[in-house]
Write a structure and sequence with these properties.
single chain; about 425 residues; mainly alpha; MetI-like fold; two-stranded antiparallel ribbon; 4 strands; about 65% helix; flat
Length: about 425
């Protein structure tokens, strides 16, 4: 674009080709924006496919389950159109028998029984057993089914079937916070001995906070040393910091098992130097201690690097100036140096905490029963119990917790003040 000129009549600035300057600038800006968009489009597409869509699918699955509604259409239609104040009459049981026969022929009765068993223990054998005999049943179907299994006369079961007849519902979120529907359809807490998920969420948050704190305590002096040492020494030390990234996570975890188990290297050394008796070996594996030690080691570099990037940019003259003005070493550190490291501390703590919440492999290998996190329970439902809706609900709650923590962090410290590098 050449220099603009002004016409003597209306004094409108134009470009060399006569286009009004404002239009030419808007056109150039628009082209620049489109050029920038197409440059980032592959990354945007990658994020949508690998991040946004899976999360949306997870949240959708947590409230959507069609195992009953699709495979039991007749009784589902009846339940959606009628209130269940008591065990229904013959019409409902006739529809149920028809659906049981069809579901067995279509080999979908297993899915139906599994879906019902999530909320009504024992329903799997009840549905599959009744479906095998359904073809031989004759009216009145209500008495015939109750004769096969007395639970068909349960108002609670019919309330569960009514909820399951609607593919959209919040039953799995209720189960994810250790609650259930009682016989009257009211949400109540499960017995204290059966509460699994809320204690796991609390344990996950507590261990994540503890691991983040330990990483900060260990990383701060290392990062300070990296930032203040001469370059040739700091480069060598940085290699040791980055060395874990060059080793498989599985290898690092199994190495800790070899070191810390009851018959491991550490206990053998302590017994060998007579610090411990052979029968009093320290149990540091397959418990919370194993999870804390292994995860702290694995996540420590994620705390060191943000701290180092901030400390490296702090001029050492600031502390020397504070000392020259009469401040003690502690005062100069606390009042001058430490506040400038807050962006790195915030980035490191947030990064380590979020990674800790979602950690799976290390707690599964070294955590035992007391060192498992909520991610291990999500994996169990995905791989073993195949209750994907409950796994999605647990994942949805975990995502909500992370968003809330991120929001609180932004309010208290400010995300804009973080510095990752």
């Amino acid at each position: 674009m050449q220099s603009a000129t002004a016409t003597p009549n209306d004094e409108v600035l134009t470009s060399a080709d006569g286009t009004p300057l404002q239009v030419a600038l808007a056109r150039a800006t628009r082209k620049a924006k489109w050029r920038a968009f197409w440059l980032v489009a592959p990354l945007l597409l990658f994020i949508i496919i690998t991040f946004a869509i899976p999360i949306a699918q997870m949240l959708y699955r947590s409230v959507h389950n069609t195992a009953f509604s699709e495979n039991m259409p007749a009784v589902g239609e009846y339940l959606r159109n009628n209130d269940i104040t008591d065990v229904p009459g013959e019409a409902a049981f006739a529809a149920l028998v028809s659906d049981l026969i069809t579901a067995r022929e279509n080999k979908t009765i297993g899915s139906v029984a599994t879906r019902m068993n999530y909320e009504f223990p024992g329903a799997r054998s009840q549905f599959t057993g009744s479906a095998r005999k359904a073809k031989r049943l004759e009216p009145p179907f209500k008495e015939a089914l109750i004769a096969i299994d007395k639970d068909w006369n349960s108002k609670h079961l019919w309330n569960v079937m009514k909820r399951a007849s609607n593919p959209i519902g919040g039953s799995f979120y209720l189960a994810a916070v250790d609650m259930r529907y009682d016989e009257n359809g009211n949400a109540v807490r499960v017995d204290a001995k059966k509460r699994i998920y809320v204690p796991l969420f609390v344990r996950t948050l507590w261990l994540s906070a503890l691991i983040s704190t330990l990483c900060f305590i260990l990383a701060f002096p290392v990062a300070h040393l990296l930032a203040t040492l001469p370059l040739r020494y700091s480069n060598l030390l940085m290699i040791f910091v980055l060395l874990p990234f060059w080793t498989s996570l599985l290898v690092r975890t199994t190495a800790w098992i070899a070191l810390l188990q009851g018959q491991g290297v550490l206990n053998d050394v302590l017994v060998g130097v007579n610090i411990l008796d052979d029968e009093n070996r320290v149990q540091l594996m397959y418990n919370q201690a194993g999870t804390i030690i292994a995860m702290t080691h694995i996540l420590l570099p994620f705390m060191i690097l943000p701290l180092y990037s901030v400390m490296k940019s702090i001029p050492p003259t600031y502390v020397r100036a504070a000392r020259s003005l009469g401040a003690s070493s502690w005062t100069a550190f606390w009042k001058v140096y430490f506040p400038q490291t807050i962006p790195g501390i915030g980035a490191g703590v947030l990064l380590v905490f979020i990674l800790s919440i979602g950690f799976y492999i290390t707690p599964a290998l070294v955590g035992g029963s007391s060192g498992q996190l909520i991610s291990n329970e999500i994996a169990r439902h995905m791989l073993q119990s195949l209750n994907w809706s409950l796994a999605a609900a647990l994942g949805g709650i975990l995502l909500f917790i992370i968003i809330v923590l991120y929001w609180l962090f932004d309010k208290l410290i400010g995300v804009d003040n973080m510095k990752l590098g």
